[in-house]
From TrEMBL:
It comes from the Bacteria. It is found in: Cytoplasm. One of its GO terms (biological process) is heme biosynthetic process. PANTHER family: FERROCHELATASE (PTHR11108), FERROCHELATASE, MITOCHONDRIAL (PTHR11108:SF1). Belongs to the ferrochelatase family. It comes from Massilia cavernae. This is Ferrochelatase. The gene is hemH. Residues 348-362 have a biased composition (Basic and acidic residues). Its EC number is 4.98.1.1. Fe(2+) binds at residues 210, 291. The keyword Lyase applies.
Length: 368
C-alpha cells in the first residue's frame, strides 16, 4: 500500500500541537443536490446503518436518496441562516472561542480547528492541513458528549483510515466522551436556568436525545446509559423531582424499534394529560442544527400544540455560551497534559492576536 508523500521538512521548524473539534456535518447548501451528496456520504457509513451492504445499496440509492433529498433540502432551507448552516456556523465559532480560551489558560501553543465527519471541511482534509503545518500532537474532541458507535466511533474510523496511509503519524489523544463531566453538566444547568429566568419555567422539562436503533443497546453500545446518566446528573443540578422531567429520544428513521420513549408521541401524551407548558432541551447536541431547530422547535412543537398543549418552549443548545466554552477548555486540558511549549514568545503573541481576532468574529464584533 503506498503512503502519502510527507510535506517538506526543515530543521528548526516549529512543531506545535492542535485540537480538532469534530461535529457530525452538514450539506454545503440547502439544495437537493447538496443534500443528496451529504446524505449519501452519511448513510454509506456502516457505523450509521448496520444492514448488509448489497441490500442497503439498493434501499439507499433507489428509495431513500431520490425521495428524501428534496424533503430534507426544504427542511434545511427553513433553518439556513445568512452565515450558512447553523451547525457549521456554531462549530466554527466554538473552535475560535476555544482557541482564545486555551490561550487565556496558558495553552497559546495549541491550534484549534474544526472538522466534519461528513461534508466539509472533512477530517482527511483537516488532518492533511495539520500535517503540512508539521503538527506533531493532535487531540480530537468530538462534539458528541455521549459516546456511540454511530458517532464517536465513526470519527475514529475516519481518523485511523486516514493515518493508515500516512508514514509520519502524530501523537493522538482522543476524547471518548464527557457525558458526566462536571463542567459540561454545569454549562447545561446554567443555560436552562438562564432560559427560565428570562421566560419562566414550564410544567415539565423534556430532555430529548438523538435516537439510535434499540439493537445497538442490546449489542453493547453504551449510548443509552450515558444519555440517562447525563439526564440524571442534570436533573440533580436543577433540583428536579422525577415527576418534573422526562427523557426521550428523537429522529427515529425506518421501521425498526429505536430507543424509547420517542419524543413526539411523548409530548402529545403530555398534552392529552393536561400538561399546559413544556420546555424542551437537547443535551446531546452541543450546537443547534436541523434536529433541534426544525425537528424539535417546529415539528415536535406542532405535535404538542395540535394535541392540546398550550405553550411549547425550546431551550437552545449550548452553542457559544461562555460556560460551554470554559467546559470545552477544561475537557481539552485534561487530554493535553504534558504537551511541551514549542512556540517562541513572538510566535505565541502572534497566535494570541489571531485568537483574539477569532473571538471577536465569533461573538459578532469583527468584520462580517
Amino acid at each position: 500500500m503506498p503512503f502519502r508523500k510527507e510535506p517538506p521538512f526543515a530543521h528548526g521548524t516549529v512543531a506545535p500541537s492542535a485540537v480538532v473539534l469534530v461535529n457530525l456535518g452538514t450539506p454545503d447548501a440547502p439544495t437537493r443536490k447538496a443534500v443528496r451528496r451529504y446524505l449519501k456520504e452519511f448513510l454509506s457509513d456502516p457505523r450509521v446503518v448496520e444492514i448488509p451492504r448489497v441490500v442497503w445499496w439498493f434501499i439507499m440509492n433507489l428509495i431513500i436518496l431520490p425521495f428524501r433529498s428534496g424533503k430534507s433540502a426544504k427542511k434545511y432551507g427553513m433553518i439556513w441562516s445568512r452565515e450558512g448552516s447553523p451547525l457549521k456556523v456554531h462549530t466554527a465559532k466554538q473552535a475560535a472561542l476555544l482557541q482564545y480560551m486555551l490561550g487565556q489558560r496558558g495553552h497559546g501553543d495549541v491550534k484549534v480547528v474544526m472538522a466534519m465527519r461528513y461534508g466539509s471541511p472533512s477530517i482527511p482534509e483537516v488532518l492533511d492541513q495539520l500535517q503540512a503545518s508539521h503538527i506533531e500532537r493532535i487531540a480530537v474532541l468530538p462534539a458528541y458528549p455521549q459516546y456511540s458507535g454511530t458517532t464517536t466511533a465513526s470519527v475514529w474510523d475516519a481518523l485511523f483510515a486516514h493515518y493508515a496511509k500516512v508514514r509520519n503519524i502524530p501523537e493522538l489523544r482522543l476524547v471518548r466522551n464527557y457525558h458526566d463531566h462536571d463542567a459540561y453538566i454545569g454549562a447545561l444547568e446554567e443555560s436552562i436556568h438562564a432560559y427560565w429566568d428570562a421566560h419562566g419555567r414550564g410544567d415539565k422539562l423534556v430532555m430529548s436525545f438523538h435516537g439510535v436503533p434499540k439493537r445497538t443497546l442490546l449489542l453493547g453500545d453504551p449510548y443509552h446509559c450515558e444519555c440517562l446518566k447525563t439526564a440524571r446528573l442534570l436533573a440533580d443540578r436543577l433540583k428536579l423531582k422525577p415527576e418534573d422531567y422526562v427523557v426521550t429520544f428523537q429522529s427515529r428513521f425506518g421501521k425498526a424499534e429505536w430507543l424509547q420513549p420517542y419524543t413526539a408521541p411523548t409530548v402529545q401524551q403530555l398534552a392529552r394529560e393536561g400538561v399546559g407548558r413544556i420546555d424542551v432541551v437537547c443535551p446531546g447536541f452541543t450546537s443547534d442544527c436541523l434536529e433541534t431547530l426544525e425537528e424539535i422547535a417546529m415539528e415536535v412543537k406542532q405535535a404538542f400544540m395540535t394535541a392540546g398543549g398550550k405553550e411549547f418552549n425550546y431551550i437552545p443548545c449550548l452553542n457559544e455560551s461562555p460556560a460551554w466554552i470554559t467546559a470545552m477548555a477544561e475537557i481539552t486540558e485534561q487530554h493535553i497534559i504534558g504537551w511541551p511549549t514549542m512556540l517562541s514568545p513572538q510566535q505565541r503573541d502572534a497566535r494570541q492576536r489571531d485568537a483574539d481576532a477569532g473571538r471577536k468574529d465569533a461573538l459578532g464584533m469583527g468584520a462580517a
